[in-house]
């Protein structure tokens, strides 16, 4: 029989982020150690999990973190201990060094649905009285491990615009460490076409050692962030923070009606925002809400170097390739079933070619589709048919643009990849001072969106990379987060 805590009256809540069928359930508090700590027990499951020792040599994982409130007060971030955690059979738990969250993943090679029971994380707390009422929320986000190692930026014989290269346009730059990188149009150095104001950048450098090159290992969200994830974040904010970070306000859609499939609604003064389509990738979020979400979740932005590593891995670039590693691409407009549901599918998915949401396949309803739709609809489940990257990351080409940290101006190059700590300012702002927050023009975007033509989808293409509206709310721009593995 489990030992239940007797000092705390518990109100336990499970957050089910159902977009990709990741599920947290059966939450309880166990083995309370007086006024110091308690173990949070829960079950965790998700579909299509894997771990593989060959090829990509990687795995998928759940990034798990906990929020709590005392006596219906404000939600706070739970500090986790690196001791006294319990992994379920077949799993590994890596609690982050800062105690913000934990990665949970398979402990050996395998694939398929993963069901883990009676996991435990130790929550170190203070200022809790024996008569307090505690509410708990456990959050889980699907991530993919991108291992340490060299890779190539840009180059190749394609005609991608403003692409990175070394020496000449047809030669890739080999990233072999996290050391500083010189910017110069000569052999062995990194360079790119400045292009227009929308494109490559100022051609200045160096790229500092602190800027994440993608050589070091990191975890990347398997899917683009969803409406459900943003609503879950928003609903833990204070009333003041909600007024400032309203996803239906100026930093979001600026309306209560649906626009390009964004269905989030919230009435000022009401308790919670809602969405009827939690599984659809989130658009119409500007950088203010973006960085707030990343800090709240204990994650960080992705650099544009890390974007290319996440797409192609260590493979030498191919001319004009998409995230699945070649130029084969579907051209027939998709038709859909189960629209606006967690099982939204494509009924005429292309076989033996690359599948992607862009202007030739977008179909109706127009706008971003539910995350993971290509993999769920594929027939043969190949990398091409699912649109997956070398490491198994979905929709890095198409659906929505990926916001990344720019290497083409001083604001982007000054980025230091510190993680969010789960806590926000009184106004709900991120407070990681090494991110481009005060002066936001260190952002760019890559990978194309549902309304773009195929040229924008190419891994090395940076044509619109530095457009000024990369910091604004747009129907075409979404985001995903990363976290350094070390």
TrEMBL record:
Pfam family, one: FGE-sulfatase
InterPro entries xrefs: CTDL_fold, SUMF_dom, SUMF_sf
Keyword list, A-Z: Signal
Signal sequence residues: 1-19
SUPFAM superfamilies: C-type lectin-like
Residue ranges annotated for the Sulfatase-modifying factor enzyme-like domain, each copy included: 216-483
Keyword Signal set for record: yes
Coiled-coil region: none
Record-given protein name: SUMF1/EgtB/PvdO family nonheme iron enzyme
Species of provenance: Algibacter miyuki
């Amino acid at each position: 029989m489990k030992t239940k805590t007797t000092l705390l009256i518990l109100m336990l809540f499970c957050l089910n982020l159902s977009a990709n069928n990741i599920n947290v359930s059966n939450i309880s508090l166990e083995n309370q150690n007086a006024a110091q700590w308690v173990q949070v027990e829960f079950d965790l499951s998700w579909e299509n999990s894997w771990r593989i020792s060959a090829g990509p040599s990687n795995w998928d994982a759940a990034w798990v973190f906990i929020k709590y409130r005392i006596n219906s007060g404000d939600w706070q971030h739970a500090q986790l201990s690196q001791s006294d955690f319990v992994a379920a059979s077949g799993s590994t738990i890596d609690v982050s060094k800062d105690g913000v969250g934990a990665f949970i993943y398979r402990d050996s090679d395998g694939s398929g649905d993963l069901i883990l029971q009676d996991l435990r994380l130790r929550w170190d707390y203070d200022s809790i009285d024996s008569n307090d009422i505690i509410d708990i929320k456990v959050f889980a986000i699907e991530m993919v491990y991108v291992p340490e190692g060299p890779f190539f930026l840009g180059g190749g014989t394609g005609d991608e615009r403003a692409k990175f290269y070394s020496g000449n346009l047809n030669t890739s730059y080999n990233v072999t460490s996290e050391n500083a990188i010189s910017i110069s149009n000569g052999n062995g150095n990194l360079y790119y076409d400045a292009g227009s104001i929308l494109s490559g950048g100022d051609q200045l450098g160096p790229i500092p050692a602190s800027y994440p090159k993608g050589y070091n290992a990191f975890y990347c969200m398997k899917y683009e962030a969803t409406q459900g994830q943003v609503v879950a974040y928003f609903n833990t904010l204070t009333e003041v923070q909600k007024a400032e970070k309203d996803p239906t306000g100026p930093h979001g859609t600026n309306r209560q009606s649906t626009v390009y499939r964004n269905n989030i609604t919230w009435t000022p003064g009401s308790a919670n925002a809602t969405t009827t389509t939690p599984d659809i990738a989130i658009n119409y979020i500007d950088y203010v809400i973006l960085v707030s979400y990343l800090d709240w979740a204990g994650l960080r932005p992705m650099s544009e170097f890390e974007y290319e590593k996440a797409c192609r891995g260590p493979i030498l670039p191919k001319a004009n390739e998409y995230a699945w590693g070649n130029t084969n691409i579907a051209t027939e407009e998709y038709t859909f079933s189960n629209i606006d549901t967690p099982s939204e599918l494509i009924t005429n998915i292309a076989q033996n070619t690359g599948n992607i949401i862009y202007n030739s396949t977008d179909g109706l309803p127009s706008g971003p589709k539910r995350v993971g739709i290509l993999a769920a609809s594929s027939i043969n489940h190949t990398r091409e048919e699912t649109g997956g990257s070398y490491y198994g990351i979905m929709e890095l080409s198409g659906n929505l643009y990926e916001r990344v940290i720019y290497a083409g101006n001083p604001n982007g190059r000054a980025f230091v990849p510190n993680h969010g700590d789960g806590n926000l300012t009184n106004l709900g702002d991120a407070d990681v001072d090494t991110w481009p927050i005060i002066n936001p023009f260190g952002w760019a975007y890559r990978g194309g969106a549902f309304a773009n033509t195929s040229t924008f989808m190419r891994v090395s293409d940076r044509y619109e990379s530095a457009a000024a509206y990369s910091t604004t709310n747009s129907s075409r721009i979404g985001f995903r987060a990363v976290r350094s593995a070390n």
